[in-house]
Amino acid sequence: MTPTYYLLLSALLFSVGAVGVLVRRNAIVVFMCIELMLNAVNLTLVTFSRINGDLDGQVIALFVMVVAACEVVVGLAIIMSIFRSRRSASIDDANLLKY
Amino acid sequence: MTYEVPTTLAQAIEPPAIDYAAIMPLLVVLGTACVGVLIEAFLPRHQRWPAQVALSVAGIAVAGLTLGLYAGGAGAEGVLTLAGAVAVDRPTLFMWGALLALGLASVLLIADRSVEPGGAFISSAVARAAAGGGPGTSGTAADDRDYGSPDQAPTMQTEVFPFAFFALGGMMAFVSANDLLTMFIALEVLSLPLYLMCGLARRRRLLSQEAAVKYFLLGAFASAFFLYGLALIYGYAGSVRFSDIAEASVGSARSDALLFAGLALLVVGLMFKASVGPFHTWTPDVYQGAPTPVTAFMAACTKVAAFGGILRVLHEAFGDTRWEWRGVLWAVAIASMVIGAVIGLTQTDIKRMVAYSSVAHAGFLLLGAMAITPEGISGTLFYLLAYGFNTIAIFAVISLVRDADGEASHLSQWAGLAKRSPVAAYTMAFLLLGLAGIPLTSGFTAKFAVFSAALADGMAPLVVIALIASAIAAFFYLRVIVLMFFNEPAPDGPAVTIPGAFTTAAITLGVLFTLLLGILPTPALEWAAGGVFVS
User: Fold this and answer.
1) Number of structural domains in chain A
2) Which domain of life is it from (chain A) (predicted)?
3) CB contacts, 8 Å: A31 with chain B
4) What ipTM was predicted for this assembly?
């Protein structure tokens, strides 16, 4: 089994996440798509770690997981606060700032 | 495939040598942030504001002192420490100094409680709901009541101080990062507190929260791109250290597609933070929605940090491949200057106008960052310092012009301001001329330094476009000046608040630097040109 397939899979996952961010309307779903992108990166890192034969990529993947967890904390706090004042998590409703 | 498995743990983990003297300013700033969190946890509410302000000023002073002591004795070549993850060299020291000075001005603005009674920050949406503000009201009366009894003066939420220090520490780490992983962690450490700070405004909470959501979602999206770029470059070079990437880029067996796809994604993430060109879409919304002291902090310090990172990446990791990527960055710089200057013309809100001006300035800065020469580094560093002070003072003045609903940021409300408050109008006019780059202000010297570096490195067409963009941008600065001085004030127009000591100090600092860097630029230029990156 060549590692290249994993690279293709992770590129696919990253693209699915990126498209999801652009087309979905619910802030929580958008945020989940961003998490999908980060996890696609983790897969890439681990695959390259395997190809390169060193451990750096795996260590970086651990760092990315920690950062993703921190991002969840901050992100959900912000989405919660806007949900409380608007009763909606749709990013189309958040349209007061324009032009 | 097998890994080399170390036989003992001691063999596997060798603690890296740490040059504590070199990274002391960074440690002091992050330590201050941690102590600030403890103050929030253990002091009673009414004691927190004085304690936080004293701690913040002391923290920056001590960090500045350690920085000064180290910079006085350090050589021009710089050191690598923490196993090569952090580079402390002349550009790093210059940017740390600039960040600390700009951070001090921002913290003073954040700490001010005279302009907005009780300070511009409130943290809890629950408190607001408890005070009677339901969904749909952008609330004025309800927001002014805070914790504590109604007859007490409203207190300020002081969580914003530790946030500011964590962000400042992240920025300092970002400009000194010598590998992509450290850079990514620093990027998140500087971004996450900023996302939260955007949503803390006491007034116009819906706008503020909307700014926070937009900044957060787009920021996280951009950092995912940065990270994928990191992964591809790791695949190409087998390492994320800048010097290893530079080495691999001249002779690696892997496909160049990995390298350049990685670089492109990396640059998207960095350009987003620096609000350059087509990646600027968050900038006007966030600048307008965030509390003005936070906007000042973001506009000045984030710009310094982001361009510090861009400079180091382009010079250290991708300097040898510059003929491959430069064409793309030309397009990005042109897009940034044109978007900033042209869309800035159509703005009716002064905070959005300054935001578009910052997009145009990011384009000018990119010119300096693309010039892979020592002059490119020093010109960009000087520009960052000059622009930072100028823009902090602008936002400080903007926060003073208020009516009953808070800040009067619509341009029409600024008409005839000179008749009501000549001092504020003259200060604003001087600062706007600084942004436009009129001689005798820092903006002129900075633009001159950057454009001459770009010209010397063979970017003449780009410099011509930059000059045209500056001329267009000068028009909308002058429009505000004309509005302030030659129009009749509206009868129910806004009044200029008399600023307290903190805001006055921040504005004075900004104006003084804008003037001094304009008429006596030599010392700062010499510091900026004191050395190049260590790799």
Assistant:
1) 1
2) Bacteria
3) 217, 220
4) 0.96
